[in-house]
Amino acid sequence: MGPNRETRSINEAARMLKKIMPYAKEKKIFTVYQEDLLTAFVFLACLILLTFFPTDGASQKITSGLVFLFIAPILYLKLVLKKGLADFGWQLGDWKKGLVFSAVCFVPALLISFVLFRYTPFLKEYQLPLAAINNFWYFIFYELAIVGIFVALYEVFFRSFAMFYLSVKTGIYSVLYQFFLFFLFFWVTGNLDWNIIPLLIVAFFSGLVTFKSRSLLYSFATSLFFLIIFDSLVIKFTH
């Protein structure tokens, strides 16, 4: 009777263990990927709030962008994940690589622009504010104060927050992933039009510069400089 009872007890324990194992495995998987899931949730929540939060006019759009693309991700990285911002591009980084890759990426970006101008209806569809077209000083103000702010916000959110977080596990492929997320954001929100094309051009090359230099400084400067040159060429060829 003793050995049989022990055998039954062992079999019972084995059955119970078999039932518990899937739950324990799922719990372990959730624990391992808890940070990734939370980060993905914060990323999506910021974009959803940015999209659906009611705004009226450029100043409110900029304010909304500052809150959801800048303040929210920075607070999440610092207060929740307790990460150092230097690991997310907030540093001088490798200035040699920053300058070299900025110069190298500038060339294909201009070539792509030439193809757009020459072989697509881009110049007929692309729109700049009339004041920026007709007034040089307003053009400078528009590029630095309006375009510059949005470029900075996209750099912080997609290159710093998204790309550097992904780069820990995906390496150089994070450059492509952040570009895809950037493209997907405009596509899903119905804002993928001709005016977004210049931002898409700089998004990929900016990601590469940021990844190689480990700094947002060079990618931001290169992106803004490219967009100023780009808009200047648009004005030259259309007016």
Q: Could you describe the 3D structure shown?
A:
There is one protein chain. The chain has 239 residues and is mostly helical. The chain has helices at 2-32, 34-52, 58-80, 95-119, 122-125, 130-134, 136-170, 173-188, 197-213, 216-238. The protein has one domain (55-238). The protein has 10 helices and no strands.
Question: Which secondary-structure class do the elements indicate?
Answer: mainly alpha
Q: Specify the overall morphology.
A: globular
* SS elements, strand count: 0
Question: How would you state the average pLDDT, rounded?
Answer: 88
The number of helical runs is 10
Helix percent reads over 70%
Instruction: Tell me the β content.
Output: under 5%
Oligomer: single chain
Largest sheet: none
End-to-end separation in angstroms reads 101 Å
Q: Write down the secondary-structure element order.
A: HHHHHHHHHH
Flag low-confidence runs: 23-30
Descriptive tags:
single chain; 239 residues; mainly alpha; 0% strand
Write the layout of secondary structure elements.
Layout: H1 2-32, H2 34-52, H3 58-80, H4 95-119, H5 122-125, H6 130-134, H7 136-170, H8 173-188, H9 197-213, H10 216-238
Helix pairs in contact: 2-3, 3-7, 4-9, 4-10, 7-8, 7-9, 7-10, 8-9, 9-10
